Amino acid sequence: MAVNKIFERPVAMRENITHYCPGCTHGVIHRLVAEVLDEEGLREKTCGVAPVGCSVLMYNYMNCDFLEAAHGRASAFATGLKRISPEMIVFSYQGDGDLASIGTNEILHAANRGEKITVIFVNNAIYGMTGGQMAPTTLPNQVTTTCPFGRDTETAGWPIRIRELLSSLRTPAYIARGSAHSPQWIIRTKKYIRKAFKYQEENRCFSLVEVLSNCPTNWGMTPNESTEWIADNMIPYFPLGELKTPEEVDVPTQTMIGKDN
To answer: Which backbone phi and psi does 132 adopt, to 5 degrees?
Structure first.
């Protein structure tokens, strides 16, 4: 009897048991990256960079070259790797506490320089591995271990929208925000990730895909409740979709100050 295979592990993923909490969508995002690397034939020339945080052990699950960076330094590390090996596909996989806090300077300038790297930015609005503290992306009034009465924007400021911040730069780039909270958005997010890697393969531009993710443990919710919370609370503040593509940016020829055009 013929058997129709409807599921198989991507070659770009190792057969290891995950360390993530039950219901965490990090594993979903890992798989999306792995599927794109397989389908685009990029695995053999790809190197990932993971920093400190829940993403740090991604190299246990990816069947491609991987390096570990210090906290917040993954995009800077990826920049150096790409510059010495421009033929490689280089991506970083970073959380919000890492990229939007200690690594803000690195990601901002990597995007502004137009480094030909791809960044997968996982935003779950909290520090996951270190104890559920308030992150730069924690929502107003959201409770964490360091703001037990909710984030007060008068003292902590408003959550940082990385997609919007980087999209304001003049340098051409591909910037999008997807989500892992529903099957429909998982499929669409994979399309964004594919585009991001394709732009790098074509040596076009810097690319970043932000992915809204959950953290059932530190949010104090069941997995189902946490995905609903993304839809009800995160998406209104962090709207989904592509915000910048290199085709939409018209960069004039550079002229020196004081010189005639």
So the answer is: 80, 35
Q: Residue 222 in contact with residue 173, Cβ under 8 Å?
A: no
In CATH, what class is 26-242? alpha beta
Q: pLDDT digit string (tens) for 42-64?
A: 999 999 999 988 888 898 999 99
Distance CA 27, CA 111 (A): 26
Q: Are 94 and 127 in contact (CB under 8 A)?
A: no
The residue ranges of every structural domain in the chain are 26-242
Pairing of strands 173-179, 241-244: antiparallel
Query: b vs e for 94-123, b when ≥16 Cβ sit within 10 Å of the residue's Cβ?
Result: bbbbbbbbbbbebbeebbeebbbbbbbbbb
Asked if residues 64 and 46 have their Cβ atoms less than 8 Å apart, the reply is yes
Q: What string of DSSP letters covers 49-89?
A: EE-SSGGGGGGGTBSSEEEE--TT-HHHHHHHHHHH-TTSE
Q: pLDDT digit string (tens) for 186-227?
A: 999 999 999 999 999 999 999 999 999 999 999 999 999 999
Placement of tokens 């520090």 in the chain:
127
